[in-house]
Amino acid sequence: MTPFEQQMSRLNPTQLQAVTLPSQSALVLAGAGSGKTSVLTTRMAWLISTGQVTPQSILAVTFTNKAAKEMMTRLSSLLPINTRGMWVGTFHGLCNRFLRAHYRDANLPQAFQILDTADQLSSIKRLLKAMNIDTEKFQPKQVQYFINGAKEEGLRPADCDTGDFFQRKMVEIYVAYEAQCQREGVVDFPELLLRAYEVLSKNDALRAHYQARFAHILIDEFQDTNNLQYAWIKLLAGQNTVLMAVGDDDQSIYAFRGARVENMRLFEAEFAKNNLIKLEQNYRSFGHILDAANELISQNTNRLGKDLWTDKGHGEPVRIYEAASDFSEAQFVIEEIKAQINEGQMRRDIAVLYRANAQSRVIEHGLFNAGIPYRVYGGLRFFERAEVKHALSYLRLLDNPHDDTAFIRVVNFPARGIGARTLELLQDAARLHNCSLWSAVPFATGSGAAKLMGFTRMIDALRFDTQHLPLPELVDHVIAHSTLIAHYKNEKEGQDRIENLNELVNAAAAFTQIEGHASDATALQSDTDNTIITPLAGFLSHAALEAGDNQAQAGQDAVQLMTVHAAKGLEFKTVFILGLEEGLFPHENSLNEQGGVEEERRLMYVAITRAQDRLYMTLAQQRMLHGQTRYGIKSRFLDELPEASLKWLTPRASVYTAWDNTASEVATPSFGSYKKDENNTMGFRVGQAVHHAKFGDGVVVKLEGSGEDTRAYVNFGGSYGIKCLALNVAKLEVK
Ligand code: ATP
Ligand code: MG
Fold first, then answer.
1. Nearest atom (ligand 1) to Cα of 32
2. What is the pLDDT of residue 560?
3. Which SS3 state, helix, strand or coil, does residue 106 take?
4. Which of 176, 316, 500, 540 has the fewest CB atoms found within 10 Å of its own CB?
5. How far apart are CA 340 and CA 310, in angstroms?
């Protein structure tokens, strides 16, 4: 049997039906691991190998480069064909290819360049400067968000609403930005899609050509398409084009980027009228894992509805581990990983998934120390992230102002009006006097000289103000006063960056603890080379080393670290999901948004269904995150899993009862500061029996903050569950 015949023979009847569907469009709506992606790939192979179509008349589209590559690999393992000329790729990749072929129609130079997100931002900054626009009022990031948002909705400046002054100005900038890009021969990411869409819609001959060419269009992860993507697909589909979209409404996790699950219903109505195919057998996971996923997602409302079962048997129960802290959570995960590697498990079959990027640091640190190669997907390793490097550059200048690399990196970041010309002059002066940039500042001339002085004064002030602070507070102070936080507050995806910056404070605290450094800034004697180093210098070299090359080489067998978002569509033998705590997973930002918790639940469903053989979920009673200690309240999602499929490795804390929805107004745990005074809690203590006029009798579970700011988590049992009460407001009586 050829690999293709083998693959065909293992398909179940419904899969086979989907793969061999005659010329009719269809929507495959099916749960995780039911073979949607397998069906798409096998269908392509079937269409080609039965001679119905040539490889060139197939278009297949998916969401990430990793998934597109995977599809190509699967296809070429089934059929000995050259997949290179095939139109298989991401939306952006395919649109790029289209525009390359039709650059004249698209009114682009043949060698047009693509601006990535960072390039686009600098291009916008340049423009705003040239237009003399106040970047306080019209922040570059905001402008970028506006322009990209408009393009993703298919709107050119003329189509935009010009209601108020602000809006009019934005549109004016949009016009100028388009002119600048056109002049420079560049296109940004959303432009790739929009331009391709426009060329097709305006050019009848071209559209007719492609509609005739693509006999089949296949779309994976359809639940995450946005309006423009769907419109583009509709343009490409001719009278005789057969479409197959596969997706899972329960895995729709990009609503925040404009993805619309409704496209599935639309697609069914517009194309797949009588062909809704549901796959119900899951081939990926053992029963306990699947039961957990099914039970969890059944709590969501408004589902399109489908069942999922397996005949693989129960397998091992889902293991739950409650750690005392994030540090011991990481210890546990690393010990388990070691044990599994010893049993012969490949490292690449083990994945560690987390909700927020900032969570990876502690785990990275543990893997690094244990000498286990790992790879972080869909993001940089902690110390290599731009915002962390920026913060470290400020710290480096405190330690050594003559560090030119650090100087260049942050002298104008956040922007303080020091332009390229000023820096050129400064570099000339430094060369002339054979000194560092820092030392050359007094020689600076021109309009930027005063601004450069301002910068060095700021660094000097930071150094002076922090000289007696313990390392974590020093780091905290520098991050706050370098205006990095303020800068990122204005960014669209700045929240993540702020979390990472705060995480740097935790890294400093952990470093201080581990190194046994005294917690003040007194100089320490290094026992290796007799030189005197400060905790700051020690920390900086620690950061530089960890940013080094322990990251696994390409192709090397490595444990996989990624956010849940990045894990979509993938599968692993062993999966760890970290941080099962209220406010973290579900994420606190989701709690006040309509449908927020349901989107988080879908995300958890995606996470659980990545696991084939073994699934672990962990939580920490106490975690340093966002620069603060937070006390974990068990995630509501743990209570939504079937008891029979779980195995608690730690005693299940009986005091935590199920979260009920009435408690959602207090569901966001608030945080204490790491400086907090544990003792002054207005006379309350954990374990104390209390009474509240509305909620009745309860017991104090956790205390946070101190003095006037003390907050108590009180478990009232029954339908009230755990409530968080500010003690200076709530009338809480001691019983
Ligand atoms: P997701 O929703 O996570 O993207 P999916 O529906 O795309 O999942 P696949 O990745 O295609 O699912 O398949 C899941 C696993 O099941 C793969 O390892 C695949 O090889 C296997 N599989 C699919 N169909 C069958 C089958 N009929 N017999 C055996 N294994 C199968
Ligand atoms: Mg898939």
1. 2
2. 92
3. coil
4. 316
5. 25
Is residue 422 scored above 70 in pLDDT? yes
pTM recorded for the entire structure: 0.70
Which amino acid, one-letter code, is at 181? C
Six-digit token pair at 227? Answer: 């309006």
pLDDT in tens, 652-698: 753 343 333 333 333 333 332 322 334 567 778 776 778 888 888 87
Q: Note whether 92 and 148 are within 8 A (CB).
A: no
547 by DSSP, 3-state: which? coil
Burial class (CB in 10 A: 0-12, 13-18, 19+), 408: middle
Catalytic annotation present for 278: no
30 is in an annotated binding site: yes
Residue 20, number of CB atoms within 10 A of its CB: 14
The mean pLDDT value for 430-457 works out to: 90
Torsion of CA 44, 48, 52, 55, to 10 degrees: 90
pLDDT over threshold 80, residue 171: yes
What is the band of 647 on the pLDDT scale with cuts at 50, 70, 90? very high
Of the two residues 95 and 625, the one the predictor is more confident about is 95
CB 602 near ligand 1, within 6 Å: no
CA distance 313 to 636: 27
CA atoms of 27 and 271, how far apart (whole Å):
8
Sign of torsion over alpha carbons 673, 679, 684, 686? positive
Q: Does the C-beta of 32 come closer than 6 Å to ligand 1?
A: yes
Predicted confidence (pLDDT) per residue in 253-276, tens digit: 887 666 778 888 899 999 988 789
Please work out whether the CB of residue 612 comes within 6 Å of at least one atom of ligand 1.
Answer: no
CB under 8 Å to 705, separation ≥6 — which residues? 670, 672, 673, 676, 681, 711
The verdict on whether 409 is a catalytic residue reads: no
CA dihedral 723, 728, 730, 735 (to 10 degrees): 90
Which 3 state secondary structure label does DSSP give 723?
strand
Residue 606 Cα: closest atom of ligand 1: 3
Does 417 carry a binding-site annotation? Answer: no
Q: 727: which residues sit within 8 A by CB, 6+ positions away?
A: 681, 682, 684, 710, 711, 712
Phi, psi torsion values for 311, nearest 5 degrees: -110, 20
Residue 169 CB contacts under 8 Å (≥ 6 apart), including other chains: 133, 138
Whole-number Å distance, alpha carbon 557 to ligand 1 midpoint, is 23
- C-alpha triplet 271, 272, 275: angle, nearest 5°: 165
Q: Which residue has the tokens 């043949």?
A: 110
Three-state secondary structure call for residue 474? helix
CB of 283 shorter than 6 A to ligand 1: yes
Joined together, the tokens standing for residue 97 give: 């290819």
- Ligand 1: residue whose CA is nearest its atom 13: 35
323 known ligand binder: no
pLDDT at residue 200, rounded to an integer: 96
Tell me which DSSP letter residue 583 carries: B
**Tell me, what DSSP letter sits at residue 298?**
T
Instruction: Name the pairing type of β-strands 572-577 and 374-376.
Output: unpaired
